Amino acid sequence: MIQVKTPSFLFVDQDPLWLSALRRASRNLPGPKHFARTAEEAFWLLRAHEPAVVVSGYSLPESDGLSLLERMKEQYPHVACVLHTSRPSRTLRGARGIALVEKGTAPGALQAALRALWMALTGQEPPLPGAA
Question: Per-residue confidence at 1, pLDDT binned at 50, 70, 90?
Answer without folding.
Answer: very low
